[in-house]
Design the sequence.
């Protein structure tokens, strides 16, 4: 083992012949992308199945019977909508009574297609932050082609126009919140020396209405080595308000500062804690580490509350109260407040649950469980700051998604929207199993398959996982998977491997940095269980994952090429010895480690897909795709991986979407095309 590590380390320090592909754009790079795209499209688009798969994916994407995702703003319900007539999208509104009907009467607040045409821009919607309590004036974020960097403009919902001489913040990776009607607290690129090595801001300033950016007054400064520094603001239904600054000293460790009288005062929270909401003058805090304070102990994964008045009086000495403590196979998920109550969602063995918590005397809480379907994912869509309504999403693998309106005061539930079935699920079933990983840990996974499936190892199967950043993968309804894969005889598997948050922070931390091989062993264990049970065989097994999941795919591709016949590697990290030098890579040292530490560099060298490709090995032909506009992970990883495959004579397919940010496209047509390319690829590899 020592010899192997040394060999890899020397290879890692050798000159990189494809460093030129790290340049985002140049004549040479652009020509390479054009050639690679043409080769791939000539294979996949010419497949007889592609036109049908694309037509089906586009029909699903542009369908007008999709559920319009609701958001409470003032007395209205808002929704951002894209379809064939609104490629970039419209921001529109209706009232609650109308939203509950089959055909709501919508009024357009902002037409992004028209705005882009007028301004000759490639605008992509990145959301709106509307000032409380009236929620009339909003800060709208617009991205050029889907980048994380945005332009922010002040918009008046009453007039339907951008505010003349209002706040207008030029393009940057930035965060801005309302301090009051005429002041913003914001972090952004203020010029040289104000962005972290990861490419995010670390200087926070107060900007008054009418001031230019140069006149903004600094109120907090982090350090260049931080992940990022950003402001946040919360206001509850009773008028209590807090503005605070989060200094992420690493991806998972954050110092929290209260903004008071234009000064930042440190709040004595543990580093792995996150302020989540505010209700009835109580701050809600998620704990990702154990916390002993004021003679009490609170476990990792708990939700606690703090009295805001006491926090303001003495931020150095906090007295939390327990709201929710998870069991051994449970995890806290989302938190949102109505005017007077708190909605909390959680997972028990990867099954969604939801409760309403009500403030009680002495900073305590009472709980009312909501009667929602089992074997589903339960999410919080939005909660009403002026009332007790909350929109919840309910979704399962074979159950079309629905939106439920919950009354936090009474516990009453009303399904106000339900997606029509997008595929025939009548012959399918969902099973949950457990695989045993190399160290004995039980790894749950879901198998969605025909009830009459023959256990003969001949079923085309796609296995998906993510495995990082405490992101939980839970049941979901996918029209694309159902229509383009399940209906055609395919099997879909979702693995809940370590690195995620399905069982709380400890499930994530088990696979951090040099312990990361556990994540990859978990995934391989699920695959081996599928093979042992004869659900499928290596000939019929494909895998897919994106971003950190793309890294997972790259590792499995290099470590276990014999287990699968198709590997879909989406917007991936792949060069783990240079990830800190590409896009936002430095911000993920807390997850992956750093080459600056010898032990972590040695581990990264052992698992880095780009550095572990070997000539003469029989690899499956992968489909590697990325986007030019991805300013988070960056397209460089995928490009270099493809180039090295070509050098070794290993067959591959590479595709680079020119728009779309860290995703599959900037609009519905681009996203549908990428989906069709993926399903064509899987069909060729697993069904033929």
Sequence:
């Amino acid at each position: 083992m020592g010899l192997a590590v040394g060999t890899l380390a020397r290879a890692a320090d050798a000159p990189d012949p494809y460093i030129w592909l790290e340049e985002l754009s140049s004549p040479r790079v652009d020509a390479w992308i054009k050639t690679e795209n043409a080769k791939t499209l000539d294979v996949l688009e010419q497949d007889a199945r592609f036109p049908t798969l694309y037509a089906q994916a586009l029909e699903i994407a542009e369908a007008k019977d999709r559920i319009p995702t609701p958001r409470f703003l003032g007395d209205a319900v808002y929704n951002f909508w894209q379809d064939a007539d609104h490629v970039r999208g419209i921001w529109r509104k209706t009232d609650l009574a109308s939203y509950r009907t089959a055909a709501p009467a919508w009024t357009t607040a902002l037409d992004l297609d028209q705005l882009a045409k007028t301004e000759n821009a490639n605008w992509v919607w990145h959301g709106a932050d509307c000032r409380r309590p009236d929620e009339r004036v909003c800060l709208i974020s617009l991205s050029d082609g889907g980048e994380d960097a945005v332009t922010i403009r002040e918009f008046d919902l009453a007039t339907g126009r951008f505010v003349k001489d209002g706040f207008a913040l030029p393009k940057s990776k930035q965060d801005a919140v309302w301090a009051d009607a005429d002041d913003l607290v914001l972090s952004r690129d203020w010029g040289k020396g104000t962005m972290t090595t990861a490419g995010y801001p670390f200087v926070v300033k107060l900007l008054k209405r009418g001031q230019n950016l140069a006149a903004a007054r600094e109120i907090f400064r982090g350090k260049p080595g931080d992940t990022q520094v950003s402001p946040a603001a919360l206001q509850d239904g009773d008028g209590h308000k807090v503005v605070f600054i989060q200094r992420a000293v690493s991806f998972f460790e954050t110092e929290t500062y209260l903004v008071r009288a234009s000064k930042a005062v440190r709040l004595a929270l543990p580093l792995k804690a996150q302020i989540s909401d505010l209700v009835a003058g109580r701050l809600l805090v998620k704990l990702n580490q154990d916390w002993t304070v004021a003679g009490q102990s609170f476990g990792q994964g708990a939700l606690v509350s703090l009295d805001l008045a006491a926090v303001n009086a003495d931020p150095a000495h906090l007295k939390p109260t327990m709201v929710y403590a998870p069991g051994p196979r449970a995890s806290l998920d989302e938190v949102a407040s109505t005017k007077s109550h708190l909605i909390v969602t959680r997972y028990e063995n990867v099954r969604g649950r939801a409760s309403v918590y009500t403030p009680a005397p002495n900073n305590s809480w009472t709980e009312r469980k909501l009667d929602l379907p089992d074997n589903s994912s339960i999410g919080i869509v939005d909660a009403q700051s002026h009332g007790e309504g909350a929109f919840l999403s309910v979704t399962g693998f074979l159950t079309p998604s629905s939106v439920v309106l919950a009354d936090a005061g009474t516990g009453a539930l009303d399904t106000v929207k339900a997606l029509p079935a997008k595929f025939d699920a009548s012959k399918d079933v969902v099973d949950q199993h457990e695989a045993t990983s190399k160290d004995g840990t039980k790894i749950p996974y879901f198998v969605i398959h025909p009830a009459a499936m023959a256990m003969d190892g001949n079923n085309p199967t796609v296995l998906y996982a993510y495995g990082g950043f405490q992101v939980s993968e839970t049941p979901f309804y996918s029209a694309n998977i159902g229509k383009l894969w399940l209906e055609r005889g395919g099997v879909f598997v979702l693995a809940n491997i370590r690195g995620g948050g399905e069982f709380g922070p400890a499930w994530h931390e088990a696979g951090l940095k040099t312990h990361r091989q556990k994540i990859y062993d978990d995934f391989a264990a699920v695959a081996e269980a599928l093979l042992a049970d004869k659900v499928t065989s290596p000939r019929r097994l494909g895998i897919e994952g994106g971003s950190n999941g793309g890294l997972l795919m790259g590792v499995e591709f290099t470590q276990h090429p014999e287990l699968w016949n198709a590997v879909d590697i989406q917007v991936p990290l792949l060069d783990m010895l240079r990830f800190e030098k590409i896009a936002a890579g430095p911000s993920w040292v807390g997850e992956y480690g750093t080459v600056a530490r010898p032990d972590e560099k040695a581990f990264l060298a052992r698992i880095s897909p780009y550095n572990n490709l070997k000539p003469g090995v029989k690899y499956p032909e992968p489909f590697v795709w990325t986007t030019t506009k991805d300013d988070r992970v960056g397209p460089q990883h995928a490009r270099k991986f493809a180039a090295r495959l070509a050098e070794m004579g290993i067959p591959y397919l590479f595709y680079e979407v020119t728009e779309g940010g860290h995703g599959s496209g900037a609009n519905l047509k681009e996203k549908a095309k990428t989906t069709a390319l993926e399903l064509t690829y899987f069909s060729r590899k697993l069904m033929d």
Remarks:
- The chain has 15 helices and 39 strands.
- The two ends are 40 Å apart (CA to CA).
